[in-house]
Design brief:
CATH superfamily of the largest domain in chain A: Nucleoside Triphosphate Pyrophosphohydrolase
Keywords (chains A, B): Hydrolase
Radius of gyration of chain A: 20 Å
Number of helices of chain A: 4
InterPro entries (chains A, B): NUDIX_hydrolase-like_dom_sf, NUDIX_hydrolase_CS, NUDIX_hydrolase_dom, WH-like_DNA-bd_sf, WH_DNA-bd_sf, WHD_NrtR
Organism (chains A, B): Streptomyces monticola
Order of helices and strands of chain A: EEEEHEEEHHHEE
Number of domains of chain A: 2
Pfam families (chains A, B): NUDIX, WHD_NrtR
Strand content of chain A: 15-25%
Oligomer: homodimer
Helix content of chain A: 10-25%
Protein name (chains A, B): NUDIX domain-containing protein
Shape of chain A: elongated
Largest sheet of chain A: 7 strands, mixed
Largest interface: A-B, 58 and 57 residues
Chain lengths: ~240, ~240
DNA sequence: ACAAAAGTGTTTTAGTTACACCCATGA
DNA sequence: TCATGGGTGTAACTAAAACACTTTTGT
């Protein structure tokens, strides 16, 4: 807009700017996504990604974080990983008016039952595999967000965002296996993770914990590393 | 916006939606970026990324491609690589009004002298290293776009977008060395590129060409591959 | 003849895979 | 005690880095 000599705020039909959220969690070793059910037209009865308008004094990220808190009921939304995926601006994507939407992907550790907070219709976790057709272009948005998360696990420490504050390496490995949909060798996984500086750090206390009935495992915290060297490549490359 | 019961197009102060372009090229083995000089306040005299409003019937990408054609004077803009980088929406980023901007990175092969087309002030190529402070938040946008391009070279065949239709492997290697800012072993580079299916394909004709005074090199075309397996990692990891 | 770049070959090294094996716990 | 998952060790394989070497041009 720098090249415009003079302009008028109201020269164009106004654009609405919204955020749409693809909120992922892991429940029972299944990747799930938070969806709302639309109450009215268009797409009444269809599921959609939660989202909302960006307020006059907000950035898109602030709006996304606010929506995330409203939809999930989580309290410590400040610490959650929120990542801008893409912006969708096709003229016809919302039949009612011109809407430009900034999409975000969020990763939350456990899965609190969502409250249909604020103005939202029912919000529910749904396994990603059983998501049918969504409203608007949300199929595309969800697919883009999913691919982004899958790729990010390879070269960032993002997987820890799915885990509670303290976790075992088995739990962390589960994250990769679930998101990638393929098995990972426990021994090699352990070595790679521990060999990557800043990925995880051991919890000092001698406490131990187990998910099932094996040997108790050591606990770790997320480290400060954002990018991994070398990356943790998934078995099949990028399909 | 799916959760809003009823809404009014004019409920909020209107948002303006714009695109900003970081157009990169390689001139004399230096990475250069296309910048315009602002004529009036705010930031009069400062350089800025070219860009403009998204029209009522356009998508952001369409608007970006249109601006690209206007600013560079290139004719075959349809084939150029254009990539959405991020969307910037901080409330104060333009002092005049609320502007949400979708940033794109573009890679163009040779460097035609830009015409100050359309409503743009003078547009000029400037080496990336000698870019001073830009208007608005364009420093940040340019940095994000640069990092995106650097990273994309690793795992996509994007580098060929900087090259003419037919190029030698030495020229292609120059692209990597210039964008990454570090030397690449010619022998190993050649092997990696040729071992990656779909990255480049040999030009059938026996013609040869040389940039300087060495042995003439074989010519290649860009292959159809978008993602590289394995990735072509830069020496220093990801700084 | 010499420098410079293309292209080929080879050695060395690092990383990954695919296992075998022991340990600690719940049922 | 047996199944289960945690944790360690190790040999085989594979990709990459480093570098020597030949080829073909311009000067």
């Amino acid at each position: 807009m720098e090249c415009v000599q003079g302009y008028d705020k109201y020269a164009y039909e106004p654009f609405a700017v919204t955020v749409d959220l693809a909120v992922f969690t892991l429940r029972e070793d299944v990747l799930q996504v938070l969806l709302v059910e639309r109450g009215q037209e268009p797409y009444a009865g269809r599921r959609a990604l939660p989202g909302g308008f960006v307020g006059p004094e907000e950035s898109a990220e602030t709006a996304a974080r606010r929506e995330l808190a409203e939809e999930t009921g989580l309290l410590d939304v400040a610490g959650l990983h929120l990542e801008q995926v893409r912006t969708y601006s096709e003229p016809g994507r919302d039949p009612r008016m011109r809407v430009v939407s900034v999409a975000y992907a969020a990763l939350v550790p456990d899965a609190p039952q969502p409250r249909g907070g604020g103005d939202a219709a029912r919000a529910d976790w749904l396994p990603l595999v059983s998501v049918g057709r969504l409203a608007f272009d949300h199929d595309r948005i969800l697919a883009d967000a999913h691919e982004r998360v899958r790729a990010k696990l390879e070269y960032t420490g993002l997987a820890t965002a799915f885990c509670p504050p303290e976790f075992t390496l088995g739990e962390l490995r589960q994250v990769y296996e679930t998101v990638w949909g393929s098995a990972v060798d426990p021994a090699n996984f352990r070595r790679k993770v521990l060999a990557t500086p800043g990925f995880v750090e051991p919890v000092s206390g001698p406490p131990r914990r187990t998910g099932g009935r094996g040997k108790p495992a050591a606990l770790f915290r997320a480290g400060g590393a954002t990018t991994l060297h070398p990356p943790l490549l998934r078995p099949e490359g990028r399909p």
